[in-house]
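Quick start: what a row looks like.
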Amino acid sequence: MIVGPPDRTGATRVAQILRIEIAAGRLEGAFAADPELGRLWRAGAALTEAVRSVGLEDIRLSEADLALRPFTQRIADPEAARGGWLAEGFLSVLAAPGDLFADPGRVVARCLRAGLRDQPDEDGEAVDPAVLGTEIAAAARAAPGPLLAGLRGACLLRQATGTRFPSAERLLFSALDHAWRAERGPRGGGIAPEGAEAILSSARAAWILAPATALTGQGFRAWAPMGPAGIAALLEGLSRETDRALGQFPLLRRWRARARAAAAGKHGRSRLADAVMVLMRQPIVTGASLAAALGTSERTGRNLLSTLEAEGLVANLVPRRTYRAWAPTPLARRILGDAHAGAGGRPARGAAKGQGGGVNNPAEGDALADLEAAMERADGILAKYPRG
């Protein structure tokens, strides 16, 4: 009997998947126990994911460009204006993905509407979101975990649409991650309002995995969920980003402890503690929006923000004296850091697009077979641990 060499690629891939799922599960548990910090972390993560997804479509944008759209002068650069509009659509879905298991057609339709079309439609190629959504929901429910559910859904969407909606595939990936985790957490799903400030204040999402961020954390990698190189790059990036998120959580907790300590040191009539609570729910505020949330005068809102700024707990995002906006310093660093340092480079035109061949590509067929084999091995391991 001849025994072939062990499938090292498959074993490595299973190990990567399990490592990512364990790290994501730790984050999910931490955020479930501490929803305030989960909302604050996800606000920054959603901004980054939205602008990175636009970046993979060869449109340069920063977190500041997206977060501060309502506070800036009219944008003269058509590409920046288009990128901001697209990223805001992505952010709306990321903030409130909807329940793909309960209403799959609606969620798939939202992802397709928000996604940037990479290639024009051809006659007879339109998909029925209701039919496709049902197929995706069934495949995702059969997956052993959120990561593989997202990959299965993205592959099914690509099979139905070719490579015309790569950004919609990434949105669907996160929507499936949300749907899997939302069974034990928030179930937000309405159409979010316009503007990052309003979108983030109404956010109710449970996703942990952000594919565009994973692919752009160290240079740009192509989004190719049906190609071996694309899957390898995605898993490598997700592993790196979940580790980074685990490192960010103590920093967020430290910020909140400092904020509570600062509020506790004020006199009994101070609304500083209430202002901190508002910032946990509504991470980008103006003097007027803080005042409205607290039921105070706008002057009181501005004074509270000045106090928090003097304590180093919030930072002004808009460098002028009127119509300013503030954010907790951990989020402000994410926004203003990109604004000062730039977007970190951009991919060569076409190099980072969501391409990789259609479903008839033999290389993709081999990759899918490898992926299915890895899924089966992961099924066997994870089956020992009951879901929920």
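That is the whole record. The longest helix spans residues 228-264. The beta strands are 314-316, 326-328.
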